[in-house]
Amino acid sequence: MIKIAILGYGTIGSGVVEVLRTNQESIAKRAGSEIQVKYILDLRDFPGDPMEDKVIHDYDVIANDPEVQVVVEAMGGVEPAYTFVKRALLAGKNVTTSNKALVAKHGAELIAIAKEQSINFMFEASVGGGIPIIRPLNSSLTADEIEEITGILNGTTNYMLSKMTFEGSEFDDVLKDAQSRGYAEADPTADIEGYDACRKIAILTSLVCGQQVDFEEIYTEGITKITATDIKYAKAMGRVIKLLATSRKTAEGYCAIVAPFMLSQQHPLYSVNDVFNAIFVHGNVLGDAMFYGSGAGKLPTASAVVADIVDIVKHLHKNILISWSSKKMELTDSKKAKSRFFVRTRNGADTVTAAFGDVEWIEAPGVTGEMGFLTEMMSEEEYEKKAEGLQHILQMIRVV
Ligand code: HSE
């Protein structure tokens, strides 16, 4: 019998309890041992909940109980999650977490402590919700140099953009809907401003390069400036707007960016809608691979957390090597990255042509008093220089 403690009885913590209960037998068979929740740490009480008697308010009880072999961190945020997780690892307790903020900031250190202690720190649920991506990168795609990872890594914004595209819904209404479904972060700013996707691509890039990628250094734009008019133009072009998080290995180093992009129908992520996430991976010997599935929500995320618990139980006292050192990886300048650019402007055609040369004009049904155009492929810095020639830019969206 393996005894576990869950930190946080919110969406994910209660999902873990539900998954363990729903699939109790098959999980025990796969883990080779029964798994029992001994404690649930939360500030609140849960009168009437079947787990009511497991709820405690003092972390010391967990840290000092030698029977607890696995700690599930489902609190979110960096503190006190970091302090609790570090203390658990130093006390020889395995940890699994769904917390991308924690992993992006302290992953390298926590991985190193787990290694020293011959235990495991796992974080499958921190990226892509229920989609296996951390384990495949760490254990399956080890023959490759990963040259590109491009993902739709935030379920909330993908849900919102899909609804805005297919149902013409308003930004605020779809955000409320996503929150009520348990997709959004406690503070949804992290979703809509791209910070959540930024932390996730930082984690994936750190795993791929084996060094610490600081999320603060990743150029990040969210979806708050995307309007119904942009969506009309995208439709007129047969494209969709998606929040992409992408990192590429170039001859100069790794380059990462998070921003809304207009995707053509040929793009592998074009059809990824609603709360689904997908991660496109290109390896130098593998070629292309895609990982697709439920990217957020209670049970999908809990499924990944419980899979970590099973893996931990199968590897008790044996560290599974994760190559992610604290040595910093300097990212290359994102201004050198190339793409085409879609621009909306109130400037006249002559001014646009004088600044950008020949462009492809785009008309969107029902949109008047402005013009839309697509540039040739160019770097961000070239775009910025040319855009200085226009005074009235209403919008710019990268195009792939
Ligand atoms: N708020 C996140 C999302 C939850 O919408 O993707 C999963 O990390």
In whole angstroms, how far apart are the ends? 51 Å
Shape: elongated
Query: What is the tally of beta strands?
Result: 17
CATH topology assignment of the largest domain: Dihydrodipicolinate Reductase, domain 2
- Uncertain stretches: none
Main beta-sheet strand count, sense and barrel state:
11 strands, mixed
Work out the count of structural domains: 3
Strand content: 15-25%
Structural class: alpha/beta
Number of helices: 14
The percent range for helix content is: 25-40%
**What small molecules does this complex bind?**
L-homoserine
CATH architecture of the largest domain: 2-Layer Sandwich
Your description of this structure?
The structure is a single chain. Helix 5 (100-116) links the parallel strand 5 (94-97) and strand 6 (121-122). The protein starts with a strand and ends with a strand. Helix 1 (11-22) crosses helix 12. It has helices at residues 11-22, 24-31, 59-63, 81-90, 100-116, 134-140, 155-167, 171-180, 189-192, 195-209, 228-236, 298-314, 349-356, 380-387, and strands at 2-7, 35-41, 55-56, 68-73, 94-97, 121-122, 146-152, 219-220, 240-250, 253-263, 276-283, 287-294, 338-345, 360-362, 371-374, 378-379, 393-399. It folds into three domains: 2-130 and 298-314, Rossmann fold, CATH 3.40.50; 135-293, Dihydrodipicolinate Reductase, domain 2 (2-Layer Sandwich), CATH 3.30.360.10; 337-399, Alpha-Beta Plaits. It is built from 14 helices and 17 strands. Strands 7, 8, 9, 10, 11, 12, 13, 14, 15, 16 and 17 form an eleven-stranded mixed sheet that branches. With 400 residues, the protein is an alpha/beta fold. The protein is 36% helix and 24% strand. Bound molecules: L-homoserine. Residues 129, 154-156, 183-185, 191, 196, 295-296 line the site of L-homoserine (HSE). The site of L-homoserine has 11 residues, from helix 7.
